[in-house]
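Session log. Operator J.P. requested a structure for one protein chain; no other inputs attached. Running the standard single-chain path with token output.
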Amino acid sequence: MSAQKIYKVLVVGTGKRGKHHALAFKNNPRFELTGLADSSPEQLAKAAVELGIHKTSLQPLALAKEIQPDVFCFCTPPGIRLELIQVGIASGAKLIAYEKPMALSMTEAIEIRKAVNAAGVKTVVSHQHRYGQHYQKVKEIVESGALGRIHTIHAHAAGWFLHLFTHLVEYMRWYNGYARAEWVMAQAAGRGKLSDNHPSPDYIGGFIQFANGVRGIIECGAGAPDVPEVDYWWRKNKIAVYGTEGFAEVLTGGGWRAVTGAQQGVISGAGCMNYDLEMPPYIEDMVRWLDDDKQVHPCNGESAYEGFEIAMGMLRSVVQGGQIKLPLAAGEPEIEALKKVMPEQPVLVSSDVHRKEYNV
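Structure written below.
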């Protein structure tokens, strides 16, 4: 039997998430972490020592051309997505892995999709919470048919839009069998986070109509419902799936629970967002896809694109008013359009935790 191929990896961005990725690659025997790049010399030097990596650079393209990685991974704020996708393509990488959101606008997402498809490069976007045991359990309950006919999925998160909205949408779509979205409609409030490096309205809430008849309800930001069972505000996220015979819900920081027609009372279990548990299988699925084109990664770029389209449709609904039909074409950058129309108004927050974290 021939030896298994070892895939070379270059990681760009050595902040918290970059190091999560780098360590997960380093700990997987099918990958060789060959280089690190970052715009911060101090941060890069510290990460290189921690990870035992000698090849480093402040210039990702130069290092990528030298290493010629099989996997080009970048974990940076969303302001430089397309530029780094082009670096990954130029390096000859077979797979580009990067952080959500996949872009800052629908136009940029369309350009990214065109570029990677033309180059034949696989892409993976980091919606890795689905690997949590609690997320998996809710999927198992939904697929078992124990909830009857699914009719509604409600998702909400305390964190703001460009940090967490595409996470919510990805898992909603997963629980709904990846049915296509037909239209969206939304409203938003608050300008405070529009200047963030993940520019967002302070709060956004709206609806998604899926082609299979399921209605999605989604809220993100300072006005989203509290999840009092969860202590840390960043993990105050919940997705609830409702059917004709019961419901099941996952709390990012507090396990899962359900009520079904076959059970007497509430059933529940443990689980919490944990990168140490989520990252290894997320990385292992990259190996499978690199080895076999048919083993498509669950967090593949095409799925992320459809979720991002829903997100940008929501912003267009806020700007234009009313329902927005999907799919979307290129247009004015959604965040810039939002800045022109968002009124100066306070956000009515849902808890003291939100007030503290949002400074409102």
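Operator note: The chain has a mean pLDDT of 95.
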